[in-house]
Amino acid sequence: MHDVLNRLGLQSLNSGVCSSSWISNPSGGEIVSYNPATSEPLASVMTASRADYDRVIEQATSVFRSWRNIPAPARGEVIRQLGIALREKKDDLGLLVTLEAGKVLSEGRGEVQEMIDMCDFAVGLSRQLHGLTIATERSQHRMFEQWHPLGAIGIITAFNFPVAVWAWNAALAAVCGDTMIWKPSPVTPLTAIAVQHIVNEVFTRNGFPGICQLCLSDGPCVGEWMAADPRLPLISATGSCKMGRSVGETVARRLGRSLLELGGNNGIILTESADLDLALRAVCFAAVGTTGQRCTTQRRLFLHTSIADRFIERLIRAYRSMKIGNPWESGVLLGPLINSAAVDRMLAAVQTATDSGGEVLYGGRRIERPGHFVEPTIIRARSEMPIVHEETFAPILYVMTYRSLDEAIEQHNSVSQGLSSSIFTDRLTESERFLSASGSDCGIANVNIGTSGAEIGGAFGGEKETGGGREAGSDAWKAYMRRQTCTINGGGTLPLAQGVEFDLPEA
Ligand code: NAD
Question: Which of 28, 250, 346, 348 could disulfide-link 394, Cβ–Cβ 3.0 to 4.6 Å?
């Protein structure tokens, strides 16, 4: 299984910093990457010092000057080839995601598929970066918008989607004409290096080295440098609300642009008319899948009182049947948490919940075996309990009951995060109420589908403390470009807008 490190070019590399080519012996600290299912080290890499970082940024800003002039469809052609290269490496890269981030294998491969989907999307987009033509009030004038590349941009990513989130940003940024510096999570450095190898091969073969750069950090420091760096007009940051608050403030202080994809606290409402078979599968995947470590993981379940007991009973039976184990083994649905600190945070949340009146209906404990395994957990709770308002990055599901849909929606919207939400119902009036302006306040609202597992074609992101950013599909590309409004006077006079007169006296 560990041969995969060799196949992805990770056998002898000790550098986690790449501009046009790998910087040998970068002078930052060392990071050891561990397999969370066994706690065994996989490999170690060296990270960037401030001097290495400056070298990378200078290269990215210099390469931008030529990349921005390459026609967008030609930039798209490079991304098309990246998609092909990722298809060839899908199984190996997916396995590495599983080994380093602890996701079950189908989810590890699913992440790489998401990268491929993003490349396909961006190739089409490279011929559609179009602006509007707008009617003008002035005779013989023409007004239109055009979009230009922004510059070298910073991409900060979280451990739980160690490759897909980079692709959400990078595929769009590249066709938009930006260059980019990626600072991945220090917990998942190897997947980032493996992606960088694939990127280097494709971009260098096409004569464009240095468009996508990598700068590993043994903590947040490279991310902090990026946030404060005026050479980077856009910082796209994915991670916790705490991180987003810090990055957002720092970028705003220099009047830069930030795109924030932060924590969620996602809820599903099960109405009286819900198809409970459908809902059961959706809740299990949303609450337990990825061991509760998705930003879109379901953390809150609102049950109509008429179905609550019946559904909880079925849910507990389903939880009991789920196979827990090494994420690369077939049939396993629940792998480890990322590290021992995550286990401690989960146990502390369970304790806080019970201290404030919650009742553990299933799970709640660490599993004694190598690695960082926990039981998937169901807690009967009340919406006003403070712990229910926090995002604990672990498979804890808080279950609450309600009598009217208005009450359920009010409870649902009472948290500070606003990423993903769902309702299960067979009634049109209920789903329409949920999707209305006074319904779900989240960036994603689903009917008869769980909270997690979005497709890349839609814009992905959330409201409130989730940060307001949108990535991936739809018109998310606009965040990576600057808009220019142009007006051309094709006549021989100079009429002024709003009828303003400014006639000079005869000379
Ligand atoms: P984290 O906030 O600890 O770290 C995320 C990244 O930010 C890492 O690369 C980290 O080194 C860096 N970082 C941390 N503090 C920083 C600072 N002050 N300045 C600059 N960079 C800093 O998050 P995590 O534990 O890696 O990931 C889990 C979190 O990410 C959860 O809250 C989850 O909901 C969120 N997430 C959100 C989305 C989304 O699209 N909304 C997607 C994935 C994960």
Answer: 346
DSSP 505: P
Count of H-run helices and E-run strands, the chain = 13, 22
Q: Please name the residues in contact with 226: beta carbons below 8 A apart, sequence gap of 6 or more.
A: 154, 156, 181, 183, 232, 235
Note whether 90 and 116 are within 8 A (CB). yes
The answer to whether the beta carbons of residues 400 and 381 sit under 8 Å apart is: yes
pLDDT by 10-residue block (mean), the chain, 507 residues: 86 80 90 96 94 96 98 98 98 98 97 98 98 97 98 98 98 98 97 96 97 93 97 98 98 98 98 98 98 98 98 98 97 98 98 98 97 98 98 98 98 98 98 98 98 95 98 97 98 95 91
140: left (phi over 0), alpha (psi -120 to 50) or beta: left
pTM of the complete model: 0.97
From residue 87, alpha-carbon distances to 7, 109, 188, 267, 391 in Å are: 15, 10, 21, 34, 34
Q: Do 278 and 448 meet the contact criterion of CB atoms below 8 Å apart?
A: yes
- Centre of ligand 1 to C-alpha 248, Å, is 13
Q: Kindly list the structural domains of the chain, giving each domain's residue range(s) and its CATH number in brackets, ordered by start.
A: 2-262+467-485 (3.40.605.10), 266-455 (3.40.309.10)
204 alpha carbon – ligand 1 mean position (Å): 30
Q: State how far the Cα of 321 lies from the Cα of 326, in Å rounded to an integer.
A: 16
User: Separation of 375 CA from ligand 1 center, angstroms?
Assistant: 24
Q: Is 286 in the pocket of ligand 1 (CB under 6 A)?
A: no
Residues 4, 7: Cα–Cα separation, whole Å? 5
Q: Which atom of ligand 1 lies nearest, measured to the CA of 183?
A: 9
Taking CA atoms only, the protein residue closest to ligand 1 atom 24 is: 158
Q: Which atom of ligand 1 is nearest to the CA of 471?
A: 40
* Residue 295 known to be catalytic: yes
Q: What angle do CA 448, 429, 381 make, to 5 degrees?
A: 55
158 lines ligand 1 (CB under 6 A): yes
393 lines ligand 1 (CB under 6 A): yes
For 453, other C-beta atoms within 10 Å of its C-beta total 17
The residue nearest atom 9 of ligand 1, judged by CA position, is 185
Single out the catalytic residue among 261, 391, 465, 471: 261
Active site residue 18: no
Q: Is 469 in the pocket of ligand 1 (CB under 6 A)?
A: no
Burial of 179 from C-beta contacts in 10 A (0-12 / 13-18 / 19+): buried
